[in-house]
């Protein structure tokens, strides 16, 4: 397929477009992708005169006035226009399509239920022969609202557009640290031989935030931390970290390999069925063979923890209790913190706990992928320290492009004098925001880092297991103070 000429954003009057899509597009155009720029069409049900001005303002804020003169940026600004249309009405959609030139991308910056209705309308436009054949669809997460609706959406889409022309966007796959991690893993020979249960003790994928609700009760109350962050973002990142090496970085291999990981993933289930706990190692099994201990995590770390912040101070900012925020119904018990332990039951990964954790209003938040290696098989009694050395850890920051490898080194002047050493580097500034990368892939027709339909469904399957654990009554909603490290029982702070 050729590069897109026109991008239509449905729901372009919304927060997502202003805050993320337009700045992302600006970075992409400033990087010269595509070289000639695009025709940008905003669409929504209201009449708007100011769309071109909104685009200009967003581009200027992201790039500075000078870069607005770059050819791709200039062309896009000159072309930006608004078409009023109800994206759920086939007649409106067909009329809109008559006014734009292809190759065409349709970006659904809409809530999931509206996206579903809009895709139904679009399938009718297709059936009447009025949808240009090479149209690309771009869908924002969440893809559906549960496993059934995700399946329904996928079946609907499959009826009128081939999978390779569907971009299911998860902007975490465009974060610099995630892309840096994938490159690091496959461009170096030293990692792959270690990338399995024999050498890796556990994996932690943590995205804590200082931000609280920030006035988003309308969205967040019905969502909560697990659905907002784990269902897609953290599970998709996990799948990239744990996938088998692709033979090519393309839209066939990577989505297939990540879906393969997700299919094998399920909530850690070593404790008594449904009791929300995990084996703390007291079962007597060794860490080898059939063992599935959560080595390195505090004993008895539960498989699922949920929490909700109370009043406190985060980063110098006073924050009210979640339950006192506007629009919050305390009885809904929406969680602002979720930590789950997942296992990927495959030949490569069986028995390796993967901790996925996210929380709002967290002081000193961690945002990283941490791979904790197993200790050497033998402890030298000549080493002066009393216990075993800490494990080697590879850490990659999500947003700060930092890579740290924590090792134990000998010396100085004595090979037995153990010193914790960190080999640390920062990747170069990417120039693109995460949405900039996402839009670049859309505009260049590269689907390697998008979510395939079955991958999205697997995310919902795992979320259903988390919801089941919540509903079992065995995972109490724990209070944690805003500005703290989250519920104490979660462990893993810092
Ligand atoms: O999708 C989401 O992600 C953000 C965190 O990602 P960032 O790149 O904006 O830092 C999270 O705050 C939000 O709740 C969630 O919906």
From TrEMBL:
Glucose-6-phosphate dehydrogenase NAD-binding domain sequence ranges: 8-174
Under the heading InterPro entries, the entry gives: G6P_DH, G6P_DH_C, G6P_DH_NAD-bd, NAD(P)-bd_dom_sf
- Can you list the GO cellular component terms from the UniProt entry? cytosol
A Pfam family assignment:
G6PD_C
Q: Does the keyword Chaperone apply?
A: no
A molecular function (GO) term: NADP binding
Region (Disordered) spans which residues?
272-302
Q: Name one GO biological process term.
A: glucose metabolic process
Q: Which residue numbers delimit the Glucose-6-phosphate dehydrogenase C-terminal domain?
A: 184-270, 303-490
Ranges annotated as biased composition (Low complexity): 272-286
**Pathway the protein takes part in:** Carbohydrate degradation; pentose phosphate pathway; D-ribulose 5-phosphate from D-glucose 6-phosphate (oxidative stage): step 1/3
Q: Which UniProt keywords apply?
A: Carbohydrate metabolism, Glucose metabolism, NADP, Oxidoreductase
Q: Which NCBIfam families match?
A: PRK12853.1-3 (NF009492)
Protein name, per record: Glucose-6-phosphate 1-dehydrogenase
Species assigned in the record: Citricoccus muralis
């Amino acid at each position: 397929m050729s590069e897109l000429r026109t991008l239509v954003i449905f729901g372009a009057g919304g927060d997502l477009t202003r805050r993320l899509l337009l700045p992302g597009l600006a970075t992409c155009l400033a990087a010269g992708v595509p070289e000639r720029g695009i025709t940008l069409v905003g669409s929504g049900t209201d009449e708007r005169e100011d769309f071109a001005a909104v685009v200009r303002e967003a581009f200027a804020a992201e790039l500075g006035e000078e870069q607005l003169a770059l050819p791709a940026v200039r062309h896009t600004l000159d072309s930006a226009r608004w078409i009023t249309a109800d994206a759920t009405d086939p007649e409106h959609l067909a009329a809109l399509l008559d006014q734009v030139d292809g190759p065409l991308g349709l970006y659904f910056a809409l809530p999931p239920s509206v996206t579903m209705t809009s895709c139904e309308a679009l399938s009718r436009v297709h059936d009447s022969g009025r949808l240009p054949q090479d149209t690309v669809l771009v869908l924002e997460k969440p893809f559906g609202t549960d496993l059934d609706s995700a399946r329904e959406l996928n079946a609907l889409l499959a009826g009128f557009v081939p999978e390779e022309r569907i971009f299911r966007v998860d902007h975490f796959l465009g974060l610099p640290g995630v892309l840096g991690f994938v490159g690091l893993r496959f461009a170096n020979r030293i990692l792959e031989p270690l990338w399995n249960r024999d050498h890796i003790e556990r994996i932690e994928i943590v995205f804590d935030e200082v931000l609280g609700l920030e006035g988003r009760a309308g969205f967040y109350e019905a969502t909560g931390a697990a659905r907002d962050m784990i269902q897609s973002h953290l599970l998709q990142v996990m799948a990239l970290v744990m996938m088998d090496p692709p033979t090519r970085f393309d839209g066939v291999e990577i989505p297939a390999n990540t879906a393969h990981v997700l299919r094998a993933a399920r909530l850690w289930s070593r404790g008594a069925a449904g009791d929300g706990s995990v084996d703390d190692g007291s079962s007597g099994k060794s860490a080898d063979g059939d063992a599935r201990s959560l080595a390195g995590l505090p004993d008895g770390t539960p498989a699922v923890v949920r929490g909700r912040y109370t009043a406190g101070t985060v980063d110098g900012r006073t924050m009210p209790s979640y339950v006192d925020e506007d629009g919050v119904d305390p009885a809904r018990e929406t969680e602002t913190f979720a930590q789950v332990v997942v296992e990927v039951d495959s030949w490569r990964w069986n028995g390796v706990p993967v901790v996925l954790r996210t929380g709002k209003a967290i002081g000193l938040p961690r945002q990283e992928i941490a791979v904790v290696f197993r200790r050497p098989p033998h402890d030298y009694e000549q080493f002066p320290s009393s216990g075993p050395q800490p494990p080697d850890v590879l850490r990659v920051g999500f947003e700060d492009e930092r890579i740290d490898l924590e090792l134990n080194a000998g010396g100085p002047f004595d090979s037995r004098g153990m010193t914790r050493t960190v080999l640390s580097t920062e990747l170069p500034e990417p120039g693109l925001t995460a949405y900039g990368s996402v839009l670049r892939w859309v505009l260049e027709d590269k689907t390697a880092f998008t979510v395939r339909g079955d991958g999205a469904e697997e995310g919902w399957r795992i979320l259903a297991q988390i919801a089941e654990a919540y509903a079992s009554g065995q995972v109490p909603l724990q209070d944690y103070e805003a500005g703290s490290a989250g519920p104490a029982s979660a462990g893993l702070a810092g």
